[in-house]
Amino acid sequence: MNASADMSFFGLISGASLPVQLVMLILLITSLFSWWYIFIKVATIKQAEQGAEEFENTFWSGGDLNKLYESVTAGRRKPQGMASIFEAGFKEYVRHKQQGRADVSDIMEGARRAMRAAFNRELDELDAHLPFLASVGSVSPYIGLFGTVWGIMNAFMGLSNVAQATLSQVAPGIAEALVATAIGLFAAIPAVIAYNRFASSVDRLSVRYESFMEEFTNILQRKS
Fold first, then answer.
1. How far apart are the C-alpha atoms of 173 and 98, rounded to whole Å?
2. Which end of the chain is more exposed for a tag (fewer CB within 10 A), N or C?
3. Is the CB of residue 184 less than 8 Å from the CB of residue 140?
């Protein structure tokens, strides 16, 4: 193998020691999983934002709430996002009214609890996989650094049997070790950026859902 092949990216990986190669493999697998979750979260949050926008436009158009409830529950798919919160609150409200409970505070408390439970379920779904991205972003550089330290240690230990060390002898071992750090950063940087972006989007949706819950509660209270 010539010098240029030895110093190529894949040559450095294949020439690294087994522990360093295992570190690189772990980081590559972690990076693939993080990218998979990133694509899933992009689709999930985009769908939630579009669903909230469409439902708010329909809700504030001034239509009858009973008809809106029927349209939300008519589909085969379970309501999601803001529609799920509306469905839970209005269903509980109607149930209390049909039972003949005249106490407005009991009716509103039941509807509020139902909406809060639906809100927590929707928020859990939006938060899914975010802890994994946060862990990848914070841990991957240290895993890569471990591979780098191990590789550099092996490189210098290999020089103990050499009478006179030269740069050409040290450079390949150090380069192999630094590849682990590069792969760690490659796994961490997209995960950190995606986590911050998704966490901000989830926070905005959370505020949007809570605002709707308060406004819908006021509407139900006036109807009572």
1. 77
2. N
3. yes
Residue 57, classified by CB atoms within 10 Å of its CB into exposed (0-12), middle (13-18) or buried (19+), is exposed
pLDDT of residue 178: 83
Could you report the per-residue pLDDT of 75-116, keeping only the tens digit for each? 777 888 899 999 999 998 888 877 765 677 888 888 899 999
Q: Answer whether residue 7 is part of any domain.
A: no
pTM beyond cutoff 0.85: no
- Kindly report the backbone phi and psi dihedral angles of residue 97, in degrees, each rounded to the nearest multiple of 5, phi listed first: -65, -40
- Answer whether residue 175 is part of any domain: yes
Note the Cα 2 to chain centre separation in Å: 44
176/42 Cα distance (integer angstroms): 35
Residue 56 lies in domain: 15-223
Tell me if 129 sits within 8 A of 199, measured CB to CB: no
Cα distance between residue 60 and residue 41, in whole Å: 28
203/145 Cα distance (integer angstroms): 33
Q: Is residue 5 part of a domain?
A: no
d(CA 99, CA 141): 59
**Choice between 159 and 208, residue whose per-residue pLDDT is larger:** 208
User: Is 52 in contact with 82 (CB distance < 8 Å)?
Assistant: yes
Q: Hey, what amino acid is at 95?
A: R
Q: Which of 39, 13, 21, 26 is nearest to 190 (CA)?
A: 39
User: Residue 204 falls within a domain, yes or no?
Assistant: yes
